[in-house]
């Protein structure tokens, strides 16, 4: 999901491509996007500017008055219109020609140039939203990038809120206090400070609040106390600013910015790192971490399958390092092939031979240790043969039951004997009377 740095870069992008350009016509909404409203803006010409705050981007459509309309002085002047965008899972802005408008463009602004250019809001997964005529969302806190002092004061002054009883990894995604922090920022912040993700947020932030109170009591309000490393709130601002300086991230990059995208992937230390642990938090989001999870971890928590392509890209773009695992894997494969050849020549079953390989990878040319084979115990074969007579003994026992069933058959026949009744002789029919009747007739 795009985070604070991505939306800050998106606002920068809009301001850069729209500088000195004039737009005309009503903004066009995609027919398939029925969740978002139409943009009723009737100005003939206008300019566009944008600003960001946390996970929101506010776009301003500023109408341009013509000389003719000024002379006439008739009609009501069209006021500027503001549109607030929330990017969802895959929102971004693109500036292309009409023929190259992306497939998943859902709101388009056309320039007055010939041929015209198009500024598009692109959202592949359609979770993005825009609000016409609205301002910043009221229940969101100050921005971690542009409003750091307000952000810090807002968090430390609300320590009595019950939200801070939850794990720190879940509180970091609460936009009421950490407006702009997302999944990769929370993983990097906690990893670089060595904080387990499932400890109470209060235990992490309360010492900072008490230190601020002591400074204020001594009449040194606003003075920063120097520490060896930045605290959690400082690191949220610092890392977000570092990502902005890189220029492109996982969620917001173009083919022209591949170099800065590679720099961002090298910047990641914890997020999508296959050497880290993963766990699904109480909100269904995956957290990457190292070491212990913490006492507030979900009971029976499960790790979630990660994006293999993303992990491969992160590993590929890391700074080159000596790969010590390579020779070890090759040696293990060679040992396995030798064991398989030996087992085939001896005609021994695979389940009776188990090999344990000890490999030392201290040097580049890894040495194979001792190979110990544990053959199956010799008594196992008689045990299998002994089981055969046991089964054979059970066969006569079953056979004995057969005569018992056979004996019951005559007993049933004796119980219901059929009495033989003597047949009475049937009297023969005579036709004497019938012949006489026919003659009489």
Question: How does the SSE layout of this entry go?
Answer:
Layout: H1 4-18, E1 23-24, E2 28-29, E3 45-53, E4 56-63, H2 67-72, E5 81-86, E6 91-97, E7 105-110, E8 117-123, E9 129-132, H3 148-156, H4 168-171, H5 183-193, H6 201-217, H7 232-246, H8 258-267, E10 277-280, E11 286-289, H9 308-316, H10 325-346, E12 353-360, E13 367-375, H11 380-415, H12 432-440
Antiparallel strand pairs: 1-3, 2-7, 3-4, 4-5, 5-9, 6-8, 7-8, 10-11, 12-13
Helix pairs in contact: 1-7, 5-7
Jot down its keywords:
441 residues; alpha+beta; 4-stranded antiparallel beta sheet; 12 helices; 17% strand
Can you describe this structure in just a few lines?
This protein is of the alpha+beta class. It has helices at 4-18, 67-72, 148-156, 168-171, 183-193, 201-217, 232-246, 258-267, 308-316, 325-346, 380-415, 432-440; strands at 23-24, 28-29, 45-53, 56-63, 81-86, 91-97, 105-110, 117-123, 129-132, 277-280, 286-289, 353-360, 367-375. The strands form 4 sheets. A 5-stranded antiparallel sheet has the order 1-3-4-5-9.
Care to describe what's here?
The protein is of the alpha+beta class. It contains twelve helices and 13 strands. It has helices spanning 4-18, 67-72, 148-156, 168-171, 183-193, 201-217, 232-246, 258-267, 308-316, 325-346, 380-415, 432-440; strands at 23-24, 28-29, 45-53, 56-63, 81-86, 91-97, 105-110, 117-123, 129-132, 277-280, 286-289, 353-360, 367-375. Strands 1-3-4-5-9 form a five-stranded antiparallel sheet. A four-stranded antiparallel sheet has the order 2-7-8-6, with helices on one face. The radius of gyration is 41 Å and the shape is extended. The N and C termini lie far apart (117 Å).
């Amino acid at each position: 999901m795009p985070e604070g740095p991505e939306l800050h870069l998106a606002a920068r992008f809009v301001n850069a491509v729209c500088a000195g350009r004039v737009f005309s016509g009503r903004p066009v909404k995609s027919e398939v996007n029925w969740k978002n409203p139409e943009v009723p803006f009737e100005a003939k010409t206008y300019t566009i500017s944008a600003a960001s705050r946390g996970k929101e981007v506010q776009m301003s459509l500023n109408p341009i008055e013509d000389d003719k309309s000024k002379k006439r002085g008739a009609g009501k002047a069209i006021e500027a219109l503001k549109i607030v965008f929330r990017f969802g899972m895959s929102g971004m802005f693109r500036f292309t020609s009409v023929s190259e408008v992306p497939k998943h463009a859902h709101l388009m602004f056309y320039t007055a140039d010939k041929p015209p250019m198009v500024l598009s809001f692109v959202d592949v997964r359609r979770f993005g939203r825009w609000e016409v005529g609205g301002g910043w969302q009221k229940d969101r806190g100050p921005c971690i990038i542009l409003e750091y002092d307000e952000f810090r004061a807002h968090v430390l002054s609300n320590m009595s809120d019950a939200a801070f009883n939850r794990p720190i990894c879940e509180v970091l995604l609460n936009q009421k206090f950490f407006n702009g922090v997302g999944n990769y920022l929370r993983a990097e912040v906690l990893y670089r400070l060595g904080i387990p993700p499932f400890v109470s947020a209060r235990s992490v932030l309360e010492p900072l609040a008490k230190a601020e109170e002591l400074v204020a009591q001594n009449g040194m309000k606003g003075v920063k106390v120097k520490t060896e490393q930045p605290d959690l709130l400082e690191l949220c601002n610092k890392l977000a600013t570092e990502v902005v300086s890189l220029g492109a991230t996982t969620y917001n990059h173009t083919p022209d910015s591949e170099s800065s995208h590679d720099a961002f992937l090298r910047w990641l230390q914890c997020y999508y790192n296959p050497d880290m642990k993963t766990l699904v938090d109480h909100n269904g989001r995956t957290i990457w971490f190292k070491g212990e999870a913490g006492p507030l971890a979900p009971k029976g928590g499960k790790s979630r399958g990660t994006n293999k392509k993303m992990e491969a890209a992160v590993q590929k773009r890391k700074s080159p390092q000596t790969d010590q695992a390579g020779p070890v894997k090759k040696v293990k494969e060679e040992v396995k092939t030798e064991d398989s050849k030996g087992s085939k020549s001896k005609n021994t079953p695979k389940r009776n031979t188990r090999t344990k390989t000890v490999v030392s990878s201290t040097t580049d040319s890894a040495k194979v240790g001792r190979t110990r084979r544990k053959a199956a115990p010799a008594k196992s074969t008689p045990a299998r043969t002994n089981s055969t007579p046991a089964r054979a003994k059970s066969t006569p026992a079953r056979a004995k039951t057969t005569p018992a069933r056979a004996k019951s058959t005559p007993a049933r026949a004796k119980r219901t004997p059929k009495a033989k009744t003597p047949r009475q002789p049937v009297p023969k029919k005579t036709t004497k009377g019938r012949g006489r009747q026919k003659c009489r007739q």
